C-alpha cells in the first residue's frame, strides 16, 4: 500500500488488507473457532434428549453411544482450542511483523522535518505498545466476534424452541447487558488513551534521561532530573489509577449481569414450572445454555477493551503511515552520476516552521575548493550545510550541483556524492568494522582497513581487544571522542564522495588530539569540494575562502588576510577568540 492508500482508504479496509497475505491461516483459525462454538451448543441438546427420551426408557445402548460421542467431541474441542490458541496467535504474529516492518520502513522514509516535530519516545511507543494492541485486535477480534455470535444466536434459537417466554426474557436481557457494558467500555477507552499518552511521555523522559546522563552528571543536576521525572511518573500513576477505576466499574457491571442470567432462569423458569407451562428438566437445559453464554459474553466484554486499545493504536498507525515525507523525489528525478562538485547556492531563503533563518544566501563554490563558514552561533551555518544534501528544501531560491538543481535528482544519488562529518558522531551498536563500513556497505575488509589507516585510527583499532570486531556499544560509548571522530572520518574515506561537509567538532577534544585530527581533516578535504563549519578560527586559514554568516546572511567573504584588513565582522570574531583563548 502507498502513503496515499493510507490517506484515502477507510481504516477498516486497511486493517483487513493486512489479513490478505495470511488469509488461509485466518480461515483455518475461523473454521476451528466455529467448530468449538457448535460443540458447545450440542452438549445441552444431547443432555436434554437423554433426560427426556433415553433415561426414562432405560435405553442403555443409545445413552452410552451419546455419551461417548460427547466425550469425543470434547476431546476434539480440546485439540481445536490448542489449534486456535497456537495458530491464531501465529496469525497475529505474522500480521504484527508486517505492520511493524511497514511502520519502520515508513519512518525511515520520513524527512528531517517530521523528526523535528515528533519525539522519539512517542515514535518508540508506536512501535511497541500500539503494535501489541493492534495485533491483539487483529487475531482475537474476529475470532471472539465469531464465537460469540454463533454461540449466542445458536443458544437463543434452541431456547426459543424449548420455551419461548423464558427465552424472550433472556433475549431482552442480552442487549440491555451489551448496552451498559459498551457504555462502560467508552469510559475505559478514554482512560486508556490517557494512559498511552503518559507512557509516551515517560518513554521520552527515560530515553533522554539515559542518553543525557553524562550531561546530567556533569551539571550535577540528577536531583532536578529526578524531580522532573517524578512529576511525569505521578501523572502516569494518576492516569493508570483512573483507568483501573473505569476497568473495575466495567468488570463489576459485567459480573452483575452474568449472575442475573441464571437467576432469571430459576426465578422465571420456576414460576413457569409452577404454572405448568414448562418442564423442570428444561430449567436445567436452559441453565446449560446460559452457561454457554458466559464465555462469549466475557469475550464480547473484553473485546470492548481490545477494540478500544487496538483501534486507537491502529488509527495512530494509519495517521503515521499517511504522512507523506515532506521531501520527495520528483517523478522524473534523475540519478546524479560523475559529480565534479561545483556547488551554486542562489538567493536561498529558508524557514524551519514559520521563523525564517536564512534570508537570501548566494554562494559559488567551484569544484575542489574549501570554504570555511564562520559566524556567531545561531547565525545559520548548520542550516545552510543541511540544505546542500537536501535534508530540508529551500523555501525560495535554488541549490545546484554541477548546474543541476538538487530537487531534480534522487535524494539517494545526491547523498551518495556528499560526505558529512557531524559534530555529534553517531556510532551504531555493532563492531568497529560494521561502523566504518556504514560508509559503503559493499566495501571489502581490505578497503575498510585502508580507510582506517587514512583516518589514522588503524593502530588504535589493532590495540582494541578484538581489533576490527570489537563491539563499540550503543552510540559508541566505549570509545574516546577522538576515536569516534576518526571512525566517522574513516567512513568518509571509504565513501570517497566528491563533496564534503564538515561540522568541525574539535572543540570537545583535547589540544593534542585536536591538532592531529586537524591534519587528518586536511587530508580528507584534498581533491574535494568542501564546506567546513569552523568553530575555531585557527583552522580556517587553510580554506580557499572564508564566508561569514550572521543572522542568516553572508556579511563578508574573502581570504583570512583580506577579511582581517577589512576590519569587519571577521576581524571582530578573531579578536573575540584571541581574547577567550588568551
Ligand atoms: P549555527 O549553525 O550558525 O549555530 P543554526 O543553523 O544551527 O546556526 O541555527 C539557525 C537558527 O535556526 C537558530 O535560530 C536555530 O534556533 C534555528 N534552528 C536550527 N535547527 C532547527 C530546527 N531543527 N527546527 C527549528 N529551528 C531550528
List the SSEs and their pairings.
Layout: H1 3-8, H2 11-17, H3 23-54, H4 60-109, H5 112-117, H6 120-162, H7 164-211, H8 213-218, H9 222-274, H10 280-321, E1 343-351, E2 356-365, E3 370-374, H11 381-387, E4 396-401, E5 404-405, H12 411-416, E6 418-421, H13 432-437, H14 445-454, H15 458-462, H16 481-495, E7 499-503, H17 511-525, E8 529-533, E9 545-550, E10 553-558, H18 560-566, H19 569-581
What this model shows, in words?
By secondary structure, the protein is α/β, with parallel strands linked by helices. It folds into 2 domains: 11-321, ABC transporter type 1, transmembrane domain (ABC transporter transmembrane region fold), CATH 1.20.1560; 343-417 and 497-576, P-loop containing nucleotide triphosphate hydrolases (Rossmann fold, 3-Layer(aba) Sandwich), CATH 3.40.50.300. The chain is 65% helix and 10% strand. It has 19 helices and 10 strands. It has helices at residues 3-8, 11-17, 23-54, 60-109, 112-117, 120-162, 164-211, 213-218, 222-274, 280-321, 381-387, 411-416, 432-437, 445-454, 458-462, 481-495, 511-525, 560-566, 569-581; strands at residues 343-351, 356-365, 370-374, 396-401, 404-405, 418-421, 499-503, 529-533, 545-550, 553-558. The strands form 2 sheets. A 6-stranded mixed sheet has the order 6-7-8-3-9-10, with helices on both faces. It has a 4-stranded antiparallel sheet with strand order 2-1-4-5, with helices on one face. Strand 7, helix 17 and strand 8 (529-533) form a beta-alpha-beta unit. Helix 6 runs antiparallel to helix 7 (164-211) and helix 16 packs parallel to helix 17 (511-525). The longest helix has 53 residues, at 222-274. The radius of gyration is 35 Å and the shape is elongated.
